[in-house]
């Protein structure tokens, strides 16, 4: 009985997989105007308009022998440290009013004792704080901010002041 049942199920599956009609290509498939939904497609998007910070590209020396010969001479030269690097800031406020953004910036600087910046991205003024080089540091500070009442703050990837350049500037001023 079980063999008969298995044979019946197997044959049922076999016949169920086959179709009763031959597959044909629709006549309007080659005509792009016949495809529905394309009339609402906007192809004017430009990803370059997103204003992402540029990623610095460091050139590599391919001539290792020349590099080894000039290594002693290179130690005497000063290395230029970039002023800004890609990092993270925490956005704590956004408004369309410039004065309101500056007031919030001053308040954040006084309450949090951390550098605060106002940036304008039409039509909004955004108040962002910190110069974090790693996302982990930004997330730690974000949890501190949430405890202080900044519940809507979030992390933003942007150009930040390089801490190494800041330290070099302070050291030059002390000499």
Quick description:
The chain is an alpha+beta fold.
Topology:
Elements (H helix, E strand, L loop, with lengths): L1 H16 L46 H6 L1 H4 L9 E12 L2 H15 L3 E6 L2 E9 L2 H13 L6 E8 L1 H12 L1
Antiparallel strand pairs: 1-3, 1-4, 2-3
Q: Could you please describe the fold and organization of this structure?
A:
The protein is α+β, with helices and mostly antiparallel strands and 175 residues long. It has a domain at 84-174: Sporulation related repeat (Alpha-Beta Plaits, 2-Layer Sandwich). It has six helices and four strands, in the order αααβαββαβα. The chain has a four-stranded antiparallel β-sheet. β2 and β3 form a beta hairpin. The mean pLDDT is 78.
Instruction: Let me know the number of strands.
Output: 4
Sheet with most strands:
4 strands, antiparallel
The radius of gyration over CA amounts to 31 Å
Helix and strand run: HHHEHEEHEH
Query: What is the tally of helical segments?
Result: 6
Note the beta-strand portion: 15-25%
Structural class: alpha+beta
What is the CATH C level class of the domain at 84-174, in words?
Answer: Alpha Beta
CATH homologous superfamily annotation of the domain at 84-174: Sporulation related repeat
Shape: elongated
Look at the structure and give the mean pLDDT: 78
